[in-house]
Amino acid sequence: MISNMAAAQVSIASGAKGPVITTTTACAAGSNAIGDAFELIKRGVAEVMIAGGSEASITPLAMAGFSNMKALSTRNDEPEKASRPFDRDRDGFVMGEGCGILILEELKSALKRDAKIYCEIFGYGLSGEAYHITAMEQSGANMARCIRNCLDEGGVDLEEVDHINAHGTSTPLNDVVESAAIKRCFGEYAYNININSTKSMTGHCLGASGAIEAVAVILAIKNSIIPPTINLDNPDEKCDLNYTAKVSQKREVNIALSNSMGFGGHNVTLGFKKYL
């Protein structure tokens, strides 16, 4: 498969002649695409970028591969309850398909054409696990550093963060490590943040997940409503934060983060803030 062809087709269809790039960082690819586009605009390479991710991977081969890895939930008798991030009875992720695309634009350019502005991106954090092809190092230190890198780029204090859309895959390891990373980064303030995993509702859209979740974060900021983590019936004792369980919550969201963690050790945090 020549994986760059999706970006190439968008460029051809839209006549976009700026940078045309494909990121192949597994479950972090959509977030990397948005972050890379953000950095290109910051550098003055482009004024406008089309960025995001798309995935249609529910095929016999992909299902067989993830099944052999023991990564998928086997709650086949209740598929609507199978994706249950941070719940003690979670047993793997549920594959999903989808697409999320953002139009990123330099602020002066957007104001000049009177564009509808949903929010601003303020930071793009990156780190690597350097640990295992599919697992994260269990202290959460590397993901914590990724989150901090994002906040530092935007000059945002820890106590300003209102909401985090977690990677939250519903696998036994991921949810514990990500919770540990958030606590490691924020300390006691972590308990004041509304965290969620929209994968509880969409399933895991793999390379598109970060982009889809970025859209969810942006709408949470715009609408002051944080989507829930459904199926969180019995919280894991190692996952003891506020995961916005079962029902959405009305909350003013000024600063929000979206985490992605890709197989191979690719960590990404995107930072968004309300446009005032």
Automatic annotation (TrEMBL):
InterPro entries xrefs: Beta-ketoacyl_synthase, Ketoacyl_synth_AS, Ketoacyl_synth_C, Ketoacyl_synth_N, PKS_Beta-ketoAc_synthase_dom, Thiolase-like
Family statement: Belongs to the thiolase-like superfamily. Beta-ketoacyl-ACP synthases family.
An individual GO BP term: fatty acid biosynthetic process
Protein name: Ketosynthase family 3 (KS3) domain-containing protein
Alphabetized PROSITE patterns for the sequence: KS3_1, KS3_2
UniProt keywords, alphabetically: Transferase
SUPFAM superfamilies reported for this sequence: Thiolase-like
Keyword Transferase: yes
GO cellular component term, pick one: cytosol
MF (Gene Ontology): 3-oxoacyl-[acyl-carrier-protein] synthase activity
Record keyword Repeat present: no
Source organism per UniProt: marine sediment metagenome
Domain Ketosynthase family 3 (KS3): 1-274
